[in-house]
């Protein structure tokens, strides 16, 4: 025939690959199961870690939102008076308030007067009102109160680390801070607010003059959830009606960078695991398609008899594996998204759907299928039609 | 002198796959004219399928030359041979070789797959070919929903679709009962009457009688009659 022209090989390959897959959906499903798993895992891990991360951040926001800190630009260490504090405690939304200041330098803590036998820690002067804000988690003994503050009683709430490292540090025992005698009143191992004092020795404000007399204290305020911004706006005037410009107040704390970094590691590991699953999925497509070539030799021989070149058959196999990868990836990504939404809803979280991850997993699967198809495609191209048609 | 459609000149073909070489064809020469109905007979293993594969450009001779429409084929690149098969040569096999998951119409359409053509034209041509073999009311049937004779007629439709005029049939009635066999030969005879060239490989003398010329192969040689 003189009018005979060959069609676009890619179009034929794609159309025939599609027909082959639709003609045997069961086989297609089994072959692409690996891609389904890989893409599902990939999408679900990224979706779930994303959801968990935004949830952690939301927790963190809630955490921050009950804490307001005010500091002064003035160098006057007595920039805020007990009357000022009493005034802001009466503000609606304020739960408790107090003063805190912490040494820059570490101070020797020892159980005997020999200064070189102890540990070095920073010291915080904390008023009982600020203790209410901080809510130290006391594991031994108790916290101090207004009586201790008023009388400048040298009592100390020591962090759990010191308690562990120095024998003889226990409630009721005597310790020396920079040579000055204090009585251990309690041991704590965590704080609910006021992260800055974590790990320091907490003593009454009035008993911290020795180290902190020149340091202006910060005002720590615990507020009802949701009231943080309002209180932060009211604090300058509330604390210093005479000079509100001296006071800066904010409801913000530094983000917990350490926790976020740990999370990144977890995400990276699960992404690596899903990429491994995607690779295995692609491999399965390649191997299953490769072994199916053997059962389809007669079909390929027939196609050659009908005018196909070896290249046509190779392209068709590549198109089949790429399509299987794409289908498997799409199904897996959908399952991954559904799992993300399901887990999030069951946990009462807001699902953070990672559409980019879903699209990427489909792309990876398609590419994996294509690569997995190279060996079976070569096998199909090598089929001798005369041999194939004898079977 | 006009060239014959097919010219086989002293063709030899030896298989080297097994323990020792098997000479399947040992110097075969023959010509097939346009519009002929040739039967190839001979005992099992005499080289009939080997010769048919060479005629259909699915296999190459080791020695000698094969000319298709006066054109030497031994040096033709695979792509040209594929074009010739797709445009001019139709195969019919003993086992029908239909794709089980495709309808009669789709199986016939496959015969046009490697040729540039719109989908609707491909459909029309396939339907026309099925009409020619008397299966116009079986277009949507799957192979398993057709009798053996009907399946073989679908295969014949696939072989002639798009105006192919050389039909190479390898034991097309080997899997059929006598009534279906005669029906299939009737179809081939009809196509031959319309101008198609038919080469029919058969064991069966009754079927060979439909041909206008009969050649016998024995041990890779053409028997002189
Ligand atoms: N791939 C192969 N490798 C080795 N020997 C082969 C191969 N194909 C065919 N043969 C041998 O070549 C010879 C001719 O085979 P061919 O298939 O052409 O015979 P045939 O006449 O078609 O036989 P049948 O009537 O049984 O189909 C036989 O002896 C066969 O065993
Ligand atoms: Mg044979």
In short:
With 391 residues, chain A is of the alpha+beta class.
Task: Give the names of the bound compounds.
Answer: adenosine-5'-triphosphate, magnesium ion
What fraction strand of chain B? 15-25%
Helix/strand/pairing category of chain A: alpha+beta
Unreliable sequence segments of chain B: none
Encode the helix/strand succession of chain B as letters: EEEHEEHEHHHEHEHEE
Q: Tell me the Rg of chain A in angstroms.
A: 35 Å
Tell me about this structure.
- The complex is a heterodimer of chains A (391) and B (225).
- Chain A has 391 residues and is α+β, with helices and mostly antiparallel strands.
- In chain A, strand 8 and strand 9 form a beta hairpin.
- Chain A starts with 8 loop residues before the first helix and ends with a helix.
- In chain A, the strands form two sheets. Chain A has a six-stranded mixed sheet with strand order 10-5-2-11-1-12, sandwiched between helices. In chain A, strands 3, 4, 6, 7, 8 and 9 form a six-stranded mixed sheet that branches.
- Chain A has 15 helices and twelve strands.
- Chain A has two domains: 189 residues, no CATH class; 187 residues, no CATH class.
- The longest helix of chain A has 39 residues.
- The relative contact order of chain A is 0.20.
- With 225 residues, chain B is of the alpha/beta class.
- Chain B has a single domain, classed as P-loop containing nucleotide triphosphate hydrolases (Rossmann fold, 3-Layer(aba) Sandwich).
- At the A-B interface, helix 1 and helix 11 of A face helix 1 and helix 2 of B.
- The structure holds adenosine-5'-triphosphate and magnesium ion.
- The site of magnesium ion (MG) has 3 residues of chain B, from helix 1.
